[in-house]
Queue: 3 jobs
Job 1
Amino acid sequence: MAWAADNIQVNCIVPGFIDTALTEAARRDVAGLEQRVVERTPAGRWGKPGDVAGAAVFFASSASDFVTGTALPVDGGYSSFMA
């Protein structure tokens, strides 16, 4: 909030479970992880790097000029899932 008057926006992307080389071992080695993530994620899948890229492009573009102090979940609905 302190930098908004200087036209500096501070936001963050909060990625969910994304299918990357870093998560490959966990998906393989942690029993049931793949199924638990898919079942809990309303989108019914793990995210792809491109899913996060879209949010990054938005924040880097002028389309987000009036957005500041925001944490944007990119998680297929995982964080809003109610059991």
Note: Residues 10 and 68 are 5 Å apart (CA to CA).
Job 2
Amino acid sequence: MLKKASKEADKVITEALKKTKMDLNVSETSTIISISSGTAEVSGLSKVKMNELLTFKNNVIGMVQTLSADKVGIVFLTNADTLKAGDQAKRTHRVLDVPVGEALLGRVINPLGQPLDNKGPLATTETLPVEREAAPIMHRAPVDTPLQTGLKAIDSFTPIGRGQRELILGDRQTGKTAIALDTMINQKDTGVISIYCSIGQRASNTARVIADLEKYGVMNNTIVVVASGDDEAGMQYIAPYAATSIGEWFMARGKDVLIVYDDLTAHARAYRQMSLLLRTPPGREAFPGDIFYIHSRLLERSTHLRPEFGGGSLTALPIVSTEAGNISAYIPTNIISITDGQIYLSTSLFQKGILPAIDTGRSVSRVGGDAQLPAYRSLVGPLKLFFSQFEELESFAKFGTQLDTETVQRLNRGRAIRAVMEQVQYHPMPAAQQVAIFLATNSGLLDGVAEDKFTLAQEIIAKTLAQQFPQLVKAVEEERKKLTPEEQQRLINAFKKALEKGKVFKIE
């Protein structure tokens, strides 16, 4: 009898709790306590989740950013000028997510997944949360495949592997976005999916990037996520996380993805604005103390997965702006410590017209060398060592000291290396052509080329390679073979004849 009564009592209590829980979800309301500059404090949401979306009147959308006992901090994702203290908010019971899938290829969207390209709605119903945990260490595979940028100065001296995080940093107007754009263009026929995430940029700059992607035929394999400088700080804050979730969907299905964050300096400023308005305690240099954490949890999501977990990769190229070349500032230092290397662009090289303006002394790749094509390795090592010595020797030679024959030869070789590393924008170079040019440089073939004939000399080498050695092109790029000494000598002999015929050498 007692057991039966106990069971009936438990049943009544359980039903009452279910009813109470349901009633709470229906009746839970909230009121804006205060509102200012894209943020607000809201009361009455005792069961709200972190990153949950809230809706306000006039279709304004906000996201929960901070939680406390009696109120929550909200960042608005859309314009909230029509709201005021006392207005109510409604829970959506939905954590912020973004649409994913093949339908996004070729589209321009905002971080909420809303189209910005006037091509109609997205034909996908699948979504992923914007904030996701990075893949566990045991799910990750070594970086073993190169991501060719098509830029000789990068593929040789600071190579990038698929699944790597390589920082691009430098002052304003030094060509950071140009490097990322050329890298995306070079993925046209590689099967790599590109995602360009514009954070806090001018709309005209983003439109120019999109126009270039369309002009060079890579937009069909690219997704552009835009949070412009005119958008709310909250929208700029979520943009890189949304773009990463889109990339992770492809990565989990065995695809290789390249994602460009342009740029994380603007992202840090947006987060600082949000944090100070929500009274988050600031860290040194007036930035919130957890600025390192927001970037580390973003960039840790880039990796190369083991085959049993999808086998895809997500390669990150975050961009950071420096001031007066100060790479030891707060934000650059933080991101340098998170990434696997950096490509530093020098203002002085840019002003001299040496493009891309990559400072090889301050640029490094901590992972990509392991994934570099074998044909590069035997050629690039001597080139890099020689070039670093040349820069010091060139500074000494400026004093006008009389130089011996060996020093003059070293200077000529160094100038040839520097000229070879220069490259115009929108013209990425295939790997086999780069290897051929490095071989010619290493062997001294280009030491006597006239200064105004280096471009012509490289064109002659590329043409000779394609016409006379098509099998070596396949061996270098597809079969990833290293050139034998006999093959190298055959190439050198052919290039020498072609260069002499092309009349590119100085006339003594």
Note: The first strand starts at residue 30 and ends at 36.
Job 3
Amino acid sequence: MSPPSTQRSRALALLGRQPILRLKDFAARDVGPETLARLVREGVVVRVARGLYQRANASADAGHSLAEVAALVPKGVICLTSALQFHELTLQMPSQVWMAIDRTAWRPRIEYPPVRFVRFTGTALTDGVKRHRIEGVEVAITDPARTIVDCFRYRGKVGLDVALEGLREGLRRRKVTSDQLWHHATKMRVWSILKPYVEATAADAA
């Protein structure tokens, strides 16, 4: 193991390149937990959750929370209101990060940031899911059309007003098309629910 001073400089260099890192990421680069504990005591590094560290002066915007959660749950997918906010299709600022995990997956226990999990099955975890790089972390997020469809599927959880806002903004800003919405809604078997809203929104915009 490298000397503490060398480990310290390496840890800070790593966090300079990637603001959020897991304990195993440091271990892979020969930085021990004692060095991280010392940096935390000094206030240079913050332990934001079990096994997850960041620079004390790291940004605190919405994207930062998505990166934190994705680092903790690499197989999860950012969805619903959190995905709407990422795509700038809502003025809502979710108080928790919405993340989808597999129906049979173990439910992670996360201290911070607050996360609300939903269960997706099979291809629902891959269809319309794109990967984005946020603060050096690969984050899986449903695309705009898939996000809107999911909001209508889970309208009882996120609210119909949120789903309608996403739909209006998506069509108005041309981030989605009716065909894209039909594609995902048909797969999810909610097109009969979504169709009247799509037609009404399109008519209002005409």
Note: The beta strands are 20-22, 45-49, 52-55, 77-78, 97-102, 115-120, 129-134, 137-142.
